[in-house]
Write a structure and sequence with these properties.
Helices cover 29% and strands 22% of the residues. By secondary structure, the chain is an alpha/beta fold. It has 2 domains: 135 residues, 3-Layer(aba) Sandwich (Rossmann fold), CATH 3.40.50.1220; 79 residues, SIR2/SIRT2 'Small Domain', CATH 3.30.1600.10. The strands form 3 sheets. The protein has a 6-stranded parallel β-sheet, with helices on both faces. A 3-stranded antiparallel β-sheet has the order 7-6-8, with helices on one face. A two-stranded antiparallel sheet has the order 2-3. The model has no long low-confidence stretch (mean pLDDT 92).
């Protein structure tokens, strides 16, 4: 059974109504990223950061997987599939994908402010100030902020190195180290990129470019691969 490795970005979730991480004006949901997505922001104004992620979590729980998410889950009928996602939502899992690696964490879980390896499920959408981990520190969203290490990047690189087929979906390749994962995919592997605006990819062989939204391009490609 061939290994299909898929790297997804904000574009795949945008069609489920979730805003892309960084809009053209550099803001996320009207907020400066430095004010809500850095360790310094948490230190300066933890209540603002907590409220921001509570709202994002509420949006995620209200959103539904789209045709692209369901199509990727369907690939598991014929292939061994690993989804590596830059997204903090759980739409891949809700669509049925069994093997999902979250590079930047997942918003439906909380983590300790002292030890990021201590994570907990969140009941509902709201994480309150005063809710503490077992070490006595405030719980925060289980999300990797700017300036924090990406603990799953080495595992993701290893998965990419073992791909037989590779897909890049809905990612502008603007965020590192995630963007560097393409360099770990073997040169001979068939690669597909699906996005309305294909990102610039240099020095990558065997790349098929599908210029379409994920909900249109992904089901078409999956249908071909399942024939």
């Amino acid at each position: 059974m061939k290994n299909v490795v898929i790297l997804t970005g904000a574009g795949i979730s945008a069609e489920s109504g979730l805003k892309t991480f960084r809009d053209s004006d550099g803001l996320w949901e009207g907020y400066n990223i430095q004010d809500v997505a850095t360790p310094e922001a948490w230190e300066w104004n933890p209540t603002l950061v907590q409220d921001f992620y509570n709202m994002r979590r509420k949006s995620v729980l209200e959103a539904k997987p789209n045709a692209a998410h369901y199509a990727l889950a369907k690939l598991e009928e014929k292939y061994k599939v690993t989804v590596i996602t830059q997204n903090i939502d759980d739409l891949h899992e809700r669509a049925g994908s069994k093997n999902v690696l979250h590079l930047h964490g997942i918003i439906t879980r909380s983590q300790s402010s002292k030890n990021p390896n201590l994570t907990y499920p969140i009941d509902g959408w709201e994480l309150k100030m005063g809710e503490l981990c077992e070490l006595g520190s405030q719980l925060r969203a289980h999300v990797v902020w700017f300036g924090e290490p990406v603990p799953m990047i080495d595992k993701a690189a290893q998965i990419c190195s073992q791909a037989d087929i590779f897909m890049l979906i809905g990612s502008s390749l603007a965020v590192y180290p995630a963007a560097g994962l393409l360099n770990f995919v073997p040169a001979y592997v068939q690669k597909y990129v699906i996005d309305p605006k294909i990102p610039s990819v240099y020095g990558i062989e065997s790349m098929v470019r599908i210029e379409a939204k994920a909900a249109i391009g992904v089901p078409r490609l999956v249908e071909e691969l399942l024939k």
